[in-house]
TrEMBL record, chains A, B, C, D, E, F:
This is Cyclic pyranopterin monophosphate synthase. The lineage of its organism: Bacteria, Pseudomonadati, Thermodesulfobacteriota, Desulfobacteria, Desulfobacterales. The keyword Cell inner membrane does not apply. The keyword tRNA-binding does not apply. It comes from Desulfonema magnum. It holds the Pfam family MoaC. Its EC number is 4.6.1.17.
Amino acid sequence: MPEFTHLDKEGRVRMVDVSDKEPTLRVAIAGGMISMNSATFEKIHNQTVKKGNVLEAARIAGVMAAKKTSELIPMCHPLNITHIQVDFSPDKETNSVRIEATSRIIGQTGVEMEALTAVSVAALTIYDMCKSYDREMTISDIRLIEKSGGKSGRFVRREE
Amino acid sequence: MPEFTHLDKEGRVRMVDVSDKEPTLRVAIAGGMISMNSATFEKIHNQTVKKGNVLEAARIAGVMAAKKTSELIPMCHPLNITHIQVDFSPDKETNSVRIEATSRIIGQTGVEMEALTAVSVAALTIYDMCKSYDREMTISDIRLIEKSGGKSGRFVRREE
Amino acid sequence: MPEFTHLDKEGRVRMVDVSDKEPTLRVAIAGGMISMNSATFEKIHNQTVKKGNVLEAARIAGVMAAKKTSELIPMCHPLNITHIQVDFSPDKETNSVRIEATSRIIGQTGVEMEALTAVSVAALTIYDMCKSYDREMTISDIRLIEKSGGKSGRFVRREE
Amino acid sequence: MPEFTHLDKEGRVRMVDVSDKEPTLRVAIAGGMISMNSATFEKIHNQTVKKGNVLEAARIAGVMAAKKTSELIPMCHPLNITHIQVDFSPDKETNSVRIEATSRIIGQTGVEMEALTAVSVAALTIYDMCKSYDREMTISDIRLIEKSGGKSGRFVRREE
Amino acid sequence: MPEFTHLDKEGRVRMVDVSDKEPTLRVAIAGGMISMNSATFEKIHNQTVKKGNVLEAARIAGVMAAKKTSELIPMCHPLNITHIQVDFSPDKETNSVRIEATSRIIGQTGVEMEALTAVSVAALTIYDMCKSYDREMTISDIRLIEKSGGKSGRFVRREE
Amino acid sequence: MPEFTHLDKEGRVRMVDVSDKEPTLRVAIAGGMISMNSATFEKIHNQTVKKGNVLEAARIAGVMAAKKTSELIPMCHPLNITHIQVDFSPDKETNSVRIEATSRIIGQTGVEMEALTAVSVAALTIYDMCKSYDREMTISDIRLIEKSGGKSGRFVRREE
C-alpha cells in the first residue's frame, strides 16, 4: 500500500523530488459540474448558443488558473504546461453544466492538479457570473477522470 | 427576477461598478467536502489528531487562495479581506472531510467568492497531498452557506 | 513647472507617499488602437458580430491586467479598483480596432495606469489571438484621454 | 491562408497544443516608442546620461513583465525564457524614446509575446514615472520586428 | 504575557480578524544588512556613486516585494500600502550595505511585514546581482526598528 | 577577477543569457537563522514538538516563495524547480531556530536564489507568526552554504 509521498519520516510537509524522473508525455483529464435552478440554466444555456459569454469567461478563467496551479497548491511543482483545454456540456435535464479539462505536458511529473484546478476555477467563475441570479448553485463531482504518462501508467476512473 | 449583472446590454462581459456603494460589514460562509476511500480517510484523520499536516497545508493554501480570488475570477473586484478562516470536520461515516470557510471585510462588495475559493483550493490541496494514495477522491458540495451585508441583506441557504 | 515626483533629491527611484491624501472619486479613461491587414480585420470583425471571441478574450485580459497594474509598474500603489471596463470599436476604413478602458475608484491616488494597462494588455491579447494570421499588426495611440478626481482636477486630452 | 489557431471549430477560445513540437532556439525582437513634450524628453534624457533612473526602472519593469507574459495573455503558454533584454534609444528630434526588447528560449513555442510585453510595460513605466509632468505622452509603434525559430522560419518585418 | 495570536484554541494556524479595528496611520521601519568582501563592496560602492545600478535594482525589487507581502507570508492581510521607501547606506569599514525600509498606510493592521519583506528582497537582489563575484555574501540583522499606530502604540527597538 | 555579469558595458541592468548553456543537475543549499527571547523560543519549540504549526506554516511559505523567486528578484530566470525542501533546527542555547533550504533542478542556471528566498521567507513567516509576542526577533546569517552543477563547479562555503 503506497504511503503519502508528501510527508517525510517525521510528518513534515514536503515536495516530492522529481529531479531524477525522465520527462514523458503526461496527460490528465478532470471533470466537474455546477448545478443551478432552471431559470439560471436557461440563461446560461441561451448565452452559450447566442453569445457564449458566461462560458467563455469561465473557459478563459480555467485556462489561466491552470497556469497558476503551482502558486495555489503548496507542494505542486511549477510546470510549463503545453496544452490546457476546458469544455462545457450543458445538461438541460439536470439544470447543470458539466465541465471537463485536459492538460498536457512532456515533463517529469503529472498534470492532474492543473486539470482539476482548471475545472474548479471555471466552476467558480460560472458561480461568480451568475450569483446575482442564483445564490444556491452548487459545484460538485470534481474528480480525476483519466491520467497517463509516468511510472504509474494509465489510470481511468471507474465511473458509476 | 434579477438579471445577470455581469452582462451589459450587448452581452459583453463586464465588471459591476461598485464605486458608489457604501462600505458595510460583509460576511460569507462557504462549504464543501472531499470524499475518499476509508484507508485514505484514516490516514488523514490520524494525521489531524497527531500532526495535522495535510489539513494544515490545506488550511494555509485555502487562506492564501482567498487572498488571490480576484486574480482567479475574472470579474471579481480586488478586495483586502480582513479575515479568512478555514475549518475542517472529518466525517468517519462517509469517509469525507467537510470544509468550511468564512471571509469578512468592511467593503463595497460581498466576499462569497473569497470563501468559495478558499474551500475549493483547500479541497484541491487535500487531493494533491493524498493523490498518490487515492486517485479517486471527489470534491463536491461547494456552495454558499450564508452571506450578510450589503443591499441584498442576509442570505441563509436552505440545507436539505 | 512640476518636477518628477518619482525621483527624490538624489535621483533615487521612489514611490509617492499618498498616506495623507483624502480619498476622492477617481476616474480615468485611456485609449489605444491595433491596426492590421484587411483580411485579419475581417476575421476579427466577423467574430465580433458572430461570436465575439477574440474581443471577449481581450476584454477579459484587459480587465484582469488592470487588477495587476501595481505588480507590473514598479512605483504604482496597490489599489482596489471598484470598476474597470474595456470597450472596442472596430474601424473598417483603417482596418483597426480602437480600444478604450475606463477605471474608477474612491481612493487616494489616480487610476490612469490601470486604464492604460488594460488597454495595453487588451491590445497584446488581440495580437496574440491573431498572430498566426498577421505578424505585422501594430499597437499605437496608447494614451490618457481623460482623468478626474484628486487635487490636480479634471484633465481632458486635446485630441487632434 | 492560415486560420486563427486560437479558435476551435465551434469558435471557442483555446490554447494551441504545442506538446509535440520540438524545442528549438526561438528569438524575438519587438519595438515600440513613447513620445512626449520636449521638456519631459529633456528630463528623461538628462537622467539617462546622469543617473538613468527612469529608464532603469522601465528596463527592470520590462524584464519582470516579460516573465509574467503567460499570466497576462490568456492563451500564452508559460515559458521559462532564458534571456530578455530591454534597450532604449532617446531620439531628440522627435522627443521620443524608442524601446526594443529581445527575448530568447530553447522551447516549443515562440517568444514574441514576451518581447512585446516587455516593450509595453517598459513604456507604461516611463509614462508612470513622468506622468506628473506630461499627461499627454503617447505610446505607439508596438510591433514585432523579427522572429526566428520554429516551423514558420525567420520573419523580418518590412519597416517603411 | 501575550499569546500567539495566530493560533486558535486547538493550535490551528489562523489569520487574525481585523474587521473591527479602526483604521489609523501605521508606520513601520525595518533594517538589515548584507556583508561582502572588500572587492565586491568597492564594485557596489563605485556603482552607487557612478551609476547606482545594483542598488537601484535592489530598491525597485524591495518596493515591488513589499506590495507582494501578503502573497508571501501566509497569514498577512492584504494591504494597499500608501508608501514604501527603501534606502541604502554603504559602510566601507565593514564592507557592508545597510538597508532600511519604511512602509506607511492608514489601515486596520500594521505594516511591519511589508517593511521587513522589502529589506529581505532588496538584500537578496544585491546578492543576486553580485553573486558571480562573491558567493559568500551574508545577509543579517533583519529586524523591526520602529513601529507606530494601532492599539499597541509606538515601539522603538533598543539597539545595542 | 570575475566581473558583475548582470551589468553590461554601459552599466545597464541586464539578465544573463543562458540560452546556450547545457542543462545539468543543479543543487543549492542555503541557511539562515532567527533569534528571539527565551519565552518565544519555548513557545515555538513546544509547538514544534506538539503540533509544529509555526514551523509548518514557515515551511510551506518557504517552499511557495522558492517557486516565486523569479517574480521577486528582477534578473532571476524563471525556473521550474524539481525539488525544494525547508528544514528547521531549534537551538535552545541561543534561543534561535536555524533554517536550511535545498533546491534542485536539471537546468541551465543555478538555483541558489531559490534556496536563499525559501530561507528568507520562512524566517519572515516565523517573525509574522510570533510578532505579537516578541517584536525584537532578528533574522541573520542568510547565506549560500553549498552549490553544485554548471560550469563553475562545486562551491562549499567555509564556515567559521
